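help with these C-alpha cells:
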Amino acid sequence: MNMLRRISVIGLLLAFSLIAAACGGDDESADTTEGTVPPLETTTAAPTTTDAAPETTEAPAETTTTAAPEPEFDLVAAVYEYESTIPDGWMNVGDVTSFKDALAASGGLVIDVRQPNEYEEGHIPGAINIPLRELAANVDKIPTDKAIYVYCKSGFRAGVAVSAIRLMGYDNALAYKDSWLGWTEAGEEVSTDPVEAEVFGDPGFAPELVAAVDDYLSTLPDGWGIIGAVEDVQTALDAGSVILDVRSQGEYDEGHIEGAILTPLRAISTAENTALIPTDTQFIIHCKSGWRATIAMPVIGVLGFDNWKVFPGGWNAWTEAGAPVVTG
C-alpha cells in the first residue's frame, strides 16, 4: 500500500469512527488440513524381449474438454447481500457538524446528486456533480478507496443515491441527510465554481448488478415518484392502493396504517416478502420519517417492481395528521 492510499484508509477509518459516535443505533474455526506426503516413486523395469515392438500408424485419440458454463448471476442474492447488511444509522453521516468533521478527517469526495442547473446555482465547495439518474453510468468517477458523501436538496435524493451506490458494491458511501437546505440554513460557505470529476476507473463490480441499478435510476419518473400529502395517500388508499411498510416488526406492532404490508427494509428481497408485494395494484412505500423508504426504493426497483410511489412523510406525518391507525 503506498503512502497516499495508507493516508486515505486511515482518514476513512477516522471519519467512520466519528460518524458512529454521532449516529444513533438501529430501530432494530480456521481450516487446519495438513498437507499430504506424496507417494513414493516406483520404477518398474521394462520387460526383456527379443521381439521388436510392433509399429503403429494410428494417431492417438483426440480428447476434447468442455468448459463448465459460467454460473448465472443471481440478482436477488446480490440485493439481499446488500440490504441484509445495511448498517445501524442507515448510512446517514448526521448533521452539518458531523458531516464537516467526517469530511475533514477523511478527505473524502462529496457528490451532489441534484440536477446540473441546481448545482450551477450553488453547491458545497469541492463537490462534483453526478445527477441521481446518472450515478450508475458514472461509476468510474466514484472511488472505492476513499469516503464518499452524497447530498441533494432536501435529503430525499441523497437517500436513494447512497442506497443505489451501496447496492452496486461500494462500502464507503454515506449520505449527508440534511443536504443543501441544512448546509445553507447553517450559513456555511457555498460555491458556484464547477469541479471536474476525476476518473478512477472500473470499480470491478458485477456488471449485471450495475446495469440493473442503472436501469432503475435512469428511468426514475419526474417528481421522483413522491406522494407528498397525507390526504393524497388516503385518496390513493381509497382507490385501491396499499401501503408497503419497511419498518421493523416491533414498530409495526406498535401501530400501522390499516392494511399495510410489512416488509422490513433488511429483508425485502426474501422470497417470503417479495411474494407479499402486489404486482397488479399501486403500493406506497413508507417508514417512520421517510429515510428508510428512500433507501428501500432502489431495492424495490432493482427487483423489478415499477408500480410504486413513496411517502416521504411516513408514519410521523400520518400520525401528526390524526389519520387512523391500528395496532397489533
Summary: The domain at 222-320 is CATH 3.40.250.10 (Oxidized Rhodanese; domain 1).
